[in-house]
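Progress narrative, Year 2. Work on Uma2 family endonuclease from Streptomyces antibioticus advanced from sequence curation to structure prediction during this period.
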Amino acid sequence: MTAVDDRPRTTGIVKVFENLDVPEGFKVELLRGVIVMTAGPDVAHNDIVEAVQDQIPRQRWRRLQTQDIAILEETSQPQPDLVVLERGAGPGHGRLMPSEVITLLVEVVSKTSMDRDYMVKRSIYAAAKIPAYFIIDPVMAQCVLLTEPVGHGEDADYRRQRITKFGDLTPMEPLDLDLDLDTSEFAAYENVRPHRYP
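Result:
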């Protein structure tokens, strides 16, 4: 089991971030030294997270929502929509989960998070060597599974990318999850301008 200091020894922005008084209904993350505060998610967003969580077998995997991640080398403490790690791995208490024990991170794109989810977090998670990053995008009604992280810092990325449309089964075999994720319940956002990611 890997342990992590619940209070990183970094000074400056990390201390400011950890002492923020966050208004109820907001989410705050530290992404490469930048504090990002966002409003609570759309109901469709939460339904998607629940649908994914329900399909990942609890007997083998811990499926954690609103879990802060410790990525100290990146001066980052993101809070993905869903964190998946093997049952028995990671600490059983504390605010931060060490990135080294994580198998999969899931982010559901919001109407304002496209750049963060597709660019900033993609690079941060790859730099942290998270084996798989799964982006669920209700704006474009697609899923993007990223695997095989390579590189360091802002140049880090994932070598493999698989895109599937909502309604298609999404194979999760790179994670040894032995399942095809059913995306038929995923709802697309309405009246949102399309983007060009990934």
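The helical segments are 13-18, 43-55, 114-127. The mean pLDDT is 89.
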